[in-house]
Amino acid sequence: MHGIAYDAVHDEIIVPVHLAGAILVFRAGASGEEAPIRVIQGPHTRILRPETVELDLKNNEIVIGEDGGKDVMFFPREANGDVAPLRTIRGPKTGLDEVRGVAVDPIRNLLVVSSRSSTGTTGVFIFNRTDDGDVSPRAIIAGPKSGILRIRQVQVDPEQGKIFVAVKNNVESYRFDSPSPSPWNPDKPGFIGVWNITDNGDVPPRGIIKGPASETVWPAGVALNSKDREVYTIDSVSNGMYSYYMPEFFPPPKH
Amino acid sequence: MNKLAAGSVFALTAVLAVIPQTAHEQSNPSKPVGDDIAPIRVIADPYPAFNGIAVDGANGLVAISDPNRKSLLLYDRSLGASHGEASVPIRQIVGPDTFLGMIAGIILDPQHGEIYTANNDIEDTVVVMPYAVSGNAKPGRVFSVPHQAWGLALSEKSDQIAVTVEVQNTVAFYRRQVQGVEAPVRIIRGRATGLADPHGIYWDESHNEIGVANHGNFRGVVSNTGGGCTPSFVAEDETEAAESRPPSIRIFPATAKDDVKPLRVIEGPRSGLDWPMGVAYDSQHDTIAVANNGDSSILIFDRNSSGDVSPTRIIRGDRTGITRPMGIAVDSQHGEIWVSNWGDHSAIAFDSGAHGNTAPKRIIRSAPAGTATPGFGNPMALAYDTKRDQLLVPN
User: Fold this and answer.
1) Going by DSSP bridges, is the β-strand pair B362-365/A110-116 parallel, antiparallel, or unpaired?
2) Distance between CA B308 and CA B264 in Å, rounded?
3) Which end of chain A is more exposed for a tag (fewer CB within 10 A), N or C?
4) Side by side, which strands form the sheet with B248-253?
5) pLDDT for A76-95, tens place per residue?
6) What's the CATH number where A142 sits?
């Protein structure tokens, strides 16, 4: 599994199962071998290989991103069984390829998607939340100044209008004719990057966690705790989880 | 830290529609905030974590794959860490030149003195190391395999190596001396095979059969079966229903190819199969041994078992030391079964006829007994549980 989301209102955990074309919803307090309370799976779902998942609690929707389907799909939060999606963003105009992360800004009604492509654009794609079908993104954050080579999970802090991105930058070749490099010596180490949700084009990150002191090499996941002003990442080289106190990334606590 | 009440994430999102700039951004807009910041907390396992296991009884070796520190460890099979101390390996192969990454299945080829291990994710290769190397050694050979290769099996008779591929529901066979990018000599793949998220595999030369452990995840038959990794997976038929099938052991003729039915299938509630990982054939007892990860047990089936059958023996219980087993190997020369535990930095040996809640004969440890095991394996995402002040990590 390469994605996870927590529903703080209903106290549930949502995970995509890539190999079974399914979305599973568990009690957040689940432990051990416990059955899911809901499963979205079947031919009507049109789910191919879900990679990542997000919750839009304001609009009561589950958002999934697929690498196989090169799309983003929206389901009712309570969906269970072989149900059709409410909307699907898919097609050549979208520019989406291997979708690695999705996040929703319910205040601005925006959808933020991280997508990796070996033939197209690897970057952060921003759509209207209610987009459906083969639509062009409103904005794309990508290019050499952005530093994005490979990309994974994204989060949005809607209060600030910030996008937090796990820029993994693992430069494996994905080619038949050349072996992949060792994970020990990546020549382009990854980072956690922060952009404004209004950014567009080849924009450098406005905030960054990167370097040997950070201990991250290929950060693949990112999560936020705005209350304690902390950023969390998970690293797929070190198999480690790292917590950073980053007051500069969050507004001062309210008194 | 104080816990946020349920619903407060909703509340957080409902306030501001403007994007505030920090004082830093206003004074120095070109330099990003943050930079090379040290973490305030780290959860990482400094010790090797055991995944696959292989035994060479003739040379007295146990070899274990370690995807955590990305290493191969070779131990003296007669070692026993009965007092809880970490065992000292004969050799550890580790470092940037090794090409070792998220490694899973491992096999030994005593005849040619080679160690094979499959890079399951990211690297999409099988690394072949000479027995004698240690440290930051270059592989003897590396060959490309499809994404999510997991299990390995070798046949001296046919001089081939078999590789299971999770996402493609496939067993790919390569010539033993394969190097670089080579097409498989044959594959087992298709709807008739029933392969669904295959993991462990054994090659029973005496009966000319192979057995494959399946988790049961199935989302169509994928068309890409070439060597190496391609970024996209396209199902041949998008309307094909995704399924979560029961876990199974599927036995095929060792010469099978393409879309063939298995000779026998062990599947169903009586079987007790639950996330079967490694599988091995025990020629002494004519049985199939399964590392049953889901309930921390070893299931033993008669080789000719078929259908919804109960195991003939089960090794399970608090005395066994079995915790989240991944690999299993049979040392027919010494009448032992070896099990590698993902759950607690250990590999354990039993008499191959063991059953019930039996203590292991010997224990090899990569860390002192009781050392916590985070269990991360190439993690790719996380979420913050605001109610419990916990971080959730899918593997």
Assistant:
1) unpaired
2) 11
3) C
4) B198-204, B209-214, B248-253, B264-267
5) 999 999 999 999 999 999 99
6) 2.120.10.30
Q: What are the structural domain ranges in chain B?
A: 53-384
Of the CA atoms within 13 Å of residue B57, those in its CB half-sphere come to: 11
What is the distance between the alpha carbons of residues B98 and A183, in angstroms, rounded to a whole number?
A: 10
Rg (CA), chain B: 23
Between positions 170 and 209 of B, the ones with CB within 8 A of A are: 180-181, 197
Q: Which two tokens stand for residue A115?
A: 């997508």
Residues A104 and A73 in one domain: no
| pTM metric for this prediction | 0.91
Cβ <8 Å between A212 and B36: yes
User: What is the three-class DSSP state of B269?
Assistant: helix
User: In CATH, what number does B53-384 get?
Assistant: 2.130.10.10
Q: Are A82 and A46 in contact (CB under 8 A)?
A: no
In a shared domain, residues A22 and A107: no
Residues 6+ apart with CB under 8 A from B118: B52, B103, B104, B105, B106, B126, B145, B149, B150, B151, B152, B163
pLDDT tens string B315-360: 999 999 999 999 999 999 999 999 999 999 999 999 999 999 999 9
Is A96 found in the same domain as A85?
no
Asked which of A30, A60, A90 is the last residue of a domain, the reply is A90
Nearest C-alpha neighbor of B191 from the set B251, B245, B260: B260
In this structure, are A70 and A113 located in the same domain?
no
Same domain, A144 and A206: yes
Beta bridge partners of B180: B143
Q: What is the CATH number of the domain that holds A79?
A: 2.40.10.500
pLDDT in tens, A209-242: 999 999 998 999 999 999 999 999 999 888 999 9
3-state secondary structure of B300: strand
Count residue pairs from A and B with Cβ separation < 8 A.
318
Give, for B23, the enclosing helix (H) or strand (E). helix B23-27
Q: Indicate the residue among A64, A90, A116 that finishes a domain.
A: A90
Q: Which of A67, A57, A71 is nearest to A14 (CA)?
A: A57
Domains in chain A, number: 2
Q: Which of A52, A182, A204 sits opposite B99 (nearest CB)?
A: A182
| Range list of β-strands (E), chain A | 5-7, 12-17, 22-27, 38-41, 50-56, 61-66, 71-76, 87-90, 98-105, 110-116, 123-128, 139-141, 154-157, 162-167, 191-196, 207-209, 219-225, 230-235, 240-245
Same domain, A86 and A99: no
Phi and psi, residue A45, nearest 5°: -70, -25
> Which residues have C-beta within 8 Å of that of residue B28, sequence separation ≥ 6?
none
Give me the amino acid identity at B203. W
Please tell me whether residues A75 and A116 are part of one structural domain.
Answer: no
Q: Contact at 8 Å (CB) between B285 and B331?
A: no
Q: Taking a contact as any Cβ pair under 8 Å apart, which residues of chain A between 43 and 82 contact chain B?
A: 43, 45-49, 52, 57-58, 67-68, 70, 82
Q: Do A83 and A97 belong to one domain?
A: no
Please indicate whether, in this complex, the C-beta atoms of A161 and B233 are within 8 angstroms of each other. no
* B40: DSSP letter: S
CA angle B137, B142, B146 (to 5 degrees): 135
- Residue B34 and residue A194: Cβ atoms within 8 Å? yes
